[in-house]
Design a protein that fits this description.
about 50% helix; single chain; 8-stranded mixed beta sheet
């Protein structure tokens, strides 16, 4: 089986063996998939486009130890109801404490969840992301307002260009190009505006307070692409400064989409971290 066929098979198997669910909470309709047979929870928080099924490569490595909950964000444009929805899903799935993987925008959401609900987070993986930045909040607010006035065709075109550049070195580019083409086609004006609204709230609140982190008993892994231009070197260094005790995995030569450029290395590093005693 060649690489592309193997990727298609793994993705199809994840969809086939997982259960799609939905939850209406605080005015938003949450869609998510649950897979795995383990006792530990694993909340999968994707980037701004696409759902948590983008992390399907983790499933065969973590199925025995974890129950994976792969999130698709609703069109909720404030941080508090977004976090309320995540907690409601964890409660529904009877996960008092869970491991969390957050990629890109999902990494910002994961840090906000840690700041508000540290007892709910057991181990945390931050992939291709940076920290909240208060100096960026006003710009996020302006984009939140503007995006509702931009024709969706223009927005989708810009998203396709950004994704195409990010996937330039993806291992199975045809698969990922099709994956994000479908995700972008389903993205609405409200979805895009909501991401900016949530990002504005996250930046306004800033990183998790030191007092919260000092009381948190969990462990953290930072996974970064050496050549990531979206999560800039400055942002990644700021992230490491906030979490000095974090374990670091730098994937040589990889960019923002390290999970697609070096999928086996990326998935193996995360699985090893989440399953070690």
């Amino acid at each position: 089986m060649n690489g592309l066929s193997d990727t298609l098979d793994r993705f199809s198997r994840f969809l086939r063996e997982s259960t799609g669910k939905s939850l209406t909470h605080a005015g938003g309709v949450w869609r998510y998939r649950v897979a795995g047979h383990g006792r530990r929870g694993l909340l999968l928080l994707p980037g701004a486009v696409g759902g948590g099924e983008a992390f399907f490569r983790l499933a065969p490595l973590l199925d025995p130890t974890h129950r994976l909950v792969a999130i698709t964000y609703p069109s909720v444009d404030r941080l508090d109801p977004l976090l309320d929805g995540l907690v409601a899903i964890l409660d529904r799935e009877a996960l008092a404490s869970t491991d969390v993987v957050g990629g890109s925008f999902g990494g910002l959401v994961a840090q906000a969840l840690l700041a508000r609900e540290p007892s709910r987070v057991r181990r945390l993986v931050l992939s291709a992301t940076g920290p909240a930045d208060r100096s960026r909040a006003d710009a996020q607010v302006r984009w939140h307002r503007r995006m509702r006035r931009v024709p969706i065709g223009v927005t989708r075109g810009l998203l396709r260009l950004i994704v195409r550049a990010a996937l330039r070195r993806a291992e199975d580019r045809p698969f990922w190009r099709d994956f994000y083409r479908r995700a972008i086609a389903e993205t609405s004006v409200d979805d895009v505006a909501a991401r900016y609204g949530v990002s504005a709230d996250i930046d306004r609140e800033g990183p998790p307070p030191a007092a919260v982190l000092s009381r948190w008993n969990g462990r953290l892994l930072i996974v970064e692409g050496e050549r990531d231009r979206i999560a800039s070197r400055r942002a990644r260094e700021a992230l490491k400064a906030i979490y000095p005790a974090a374990r670091l995995c730098t994937i040589a030569g990889a960019g923002h989409a390290a999970s697609t450029e070096r999928p086996r290395e990326w998935a193996s590093a995360i699985a090893a971290f989440l399953t070690e005693d």
